[in-house]
């Protein structure tokens, strides 16, 4: 069966920055594959277009440019936040403010975001809400493990 929009797909893949000789940033395995519905928006469109038409056992290897993946780095997504925002019962746990620690946040509408700590000052912490792979071209190598309706 060929993969088409609406198909349930399971893949085993490796994700690299730039190309297969770049930094390996994520991988699955056959015991814990990545499964998704093709064309549902779970993956970016550029990924889907490379999977359409493949069958169980087919290998894939392709690049996705940053504009079609996680986008450019958005400087407006780097924000200084007062430490008092993190107070719980009037106390601030300073141990959460470690460089590169990822902190969960919610906006006024209840939307959840994750920001990586990139700077710490006396009264503020700077969080980067960009996706960790924003600004990066990426490369996928993998195999289709299953295609079903």
Summarize the structure.
The chain is mainly beta and 149 residues long. It has one helix at residues 45-51; strands spanning 8-17, 24-27, 34-37, 59-64, 78-82, 102-106, 112-120, 124-128, 138-148. It contains one helix and nine strands; from the N terminus they run βββαββββββ.
Using brief descriptors, characterize the structure shown.
149 residues; mainly beta; four-stranded antiparallel beta sheet; 9 strands
Radius of gyration from the CA trace? 19 Å
Helix content: under 10%
Mean pLDDT: 94
What structural category arises from helix and sheet content? mainly beta
Cα distance spanning the termini:
9 Å
Assembly state of the chains shown: single chain
Shape estimate: elongated
Number of separate helices: 1
How much of the sequence lies in strands comes to 35-45%
H and E order = EEEHEEEEEE
- What composes the largest sheet? 5 strands, antiparallel
**Any low-confidence stretches, pLDDT <50, length ≥5?**
none
Tell me the number of strands.
9
What does this structure look like?
The relative contact order is 0.30. Helices cover 5% and strands 40% of the residues. A hairpin with a 3-residue loop joins strand 7 (112-120) and strand 8. The mean pLDDT is 94. The strands form 2 sheets. Strands 1, 2, 3, 4 and 9 form a 5-stranded antiparallel sheet that branches. The chain has a 4-stranded antiparallel sheet with strand order 5-8-7-6, with no helix packed on it. It starts with 7 loop residues before the first strand and ends with a strand. It contains 1 helix and 9 strands, in the order E-E-E-H-E-E-E-E-E-E. It is mainly beta and 149 residues long.
């Amino acid at each position: 069966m060929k993969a088409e929009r609406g198909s349930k797909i399971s893949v085993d893949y490796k994700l690299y920055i730039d190309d297969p000789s770049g930094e390996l940033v994520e991988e699955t395995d056959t015991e814990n594959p990545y499964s998704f519905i093709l064309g549902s928006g779970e993956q970016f469109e550029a990924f889907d277009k490379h999977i359409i038409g493949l069958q169980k056992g087919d290998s894939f290897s392709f690049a996705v440019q940053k504009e079609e993946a996680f986008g450019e780095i958005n400087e407006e997504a780097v924000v200084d936040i007062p430490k008092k925002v993190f107070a719980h019962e009037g106390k601030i746990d300073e141990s959460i403010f470690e460089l590169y620690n990822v902190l969960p946040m919610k906006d006024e509408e209840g939307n959840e975001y994750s920001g990586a700590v990139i700077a710490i000052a006396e009264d503020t912490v700077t969080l980067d809400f960009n996706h960790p792979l924003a600004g990066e071209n990426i490369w996928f190598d993998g195999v289709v493990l299953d295609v079903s309706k």
